[in-house]
Amino acid sequence: MMGMGIRGARTAIKLATFRTMMAGAALTGDPAAKLLGRRQPANPFPLYEQIREHGDVYRSRLGIFCTVSHAQCRAVLKDPRFGMPVPPSPPAWEMYQGDADTLIHPIERSLLAVNPPEHTRLRRLVAPWFTASALRTRAARVEKIVHSHLDRISDGQDFDLVRDFTAQVPTAVIGDMLGIEIENYEQFGRWGMALATTIDGVRTMGERRMVRAVLAEMTSFFTQLIEENRRAPRDNAISGLVGAEVDGRPVTDEELIGLIGLLLAAGLETTVNLISNSVRFLLEHPDQKRLFLDNPDTAPDVVEEALRYDPPAMFTVRMALEDVELDGRLIPRGGWLVQLLGGANRDPKVFTDPHRFDVTRGNIREHIAFSAGAHHCVGSGLARLEAEIALRELFARFPDMRIAGDVTMRTARSARGPQSIPISVAQAVGPDPSRRA
Q1: In the chain, where are the structural domains located?
Q2: Which fold, 2-436?
Q3: For strand 324-326 and strand 402-403, is the pairing parallel, antiparallel, or unpaired?
Q4: pTM of this prediction?
Q5: Which GO MF terms are attached to this record (predicted)?
Q6: Vertex 160 angle, CA 40 and 308, to 5°
Q7: How far apart, in Å, are the Cα atoms of 294 and each of 299, 302, 385, 425?
């Protein structure tokens, strides 16, 4: 118990010191400190423009480097001289002796946190579930899930878009892929949202306790689920991965738990934000909504422009594996470079009138919302599929819906999206029973 107290005190001191540094730098006007602090600014885009004024690479008073340059972000994400930062040791969420050995954190113990060749091996394990052919097969199941949730809110009553629809669909889709029983979806979604809020690190003792509790529940649940699938294989991703091998090396249970958890932490929140933002931007831009209603087949364009205009993940970080010079600045070995994707996707050198939401934009797919290079989001195809189907079916059911109150945004640092969007339904089109057959 004494050791636990000492470790807890040290962690608390480190977190407090870090927050003090952030707050101090923010008070001096450092835009990077304001962007990367405890709470995401309600409107981060003016801060991106402040950083852009300093050139392609900006050195923050925090000692880290940042870029909002589309070209630099894309180049760094593909540059083998940069890799994923090394997680802190001991982990910031560790509270009890042995936590780091018995609790599996999906960010620190999965392909998201490692570099090639280990990253390549882990990615090859999950990639078959996200190929174009696999997604075509899954499309019908996604449509069924979307219809079932629309049926629950299609009685003409007002509803909250996030709570009643956009948070429900991705949770059900991932649960279906992994073979999670329906009664576990609420818990499943809670884990994903909790981990996503701290995907870029723990800042407070409250976050530390929350992450530790979630990891304890999640590790126990998925350990049991893996054993069940090992004893009685089923038609789902977990059974497909149990016993799988790459280059003659089997996947371990620890790796499997990390991969499953990664779908939660990195995939669930991202897709919820993507669907929510896509709907919100159409409702906030009537001319763009009319273009979509006139041609629902343009759903992919709406999704791509939503990804560019306000990406669901606003930044990612890389560490220099050797001394690297960028834009006349030396980034030393071990130095951190933050790619501010939200700013890069509004780079005026790439996108004309970048602060305008325009689904007819000619280079609409040049955004880097899903990163680039080796760590390009493996689940991006599934997220796009869910968003496109959700958009088409939602507006087919509620063509006259409108935002009926204030949109509340999440406060997570990296993941960005609405927490609540009140919707008023002027007229709803009833469910098509044949679609639920």
Answers
A1: 2-436
A2: Cytochrome p450 (1.10.630)
A3: unpaired
A4: 0.87
A5: cholest-4-en-3-one 26-monooxygenase activity; heme binding; iron ion binding; steroid hydroxylase activity
A6: 45
A7: 11, 13, 20, 19
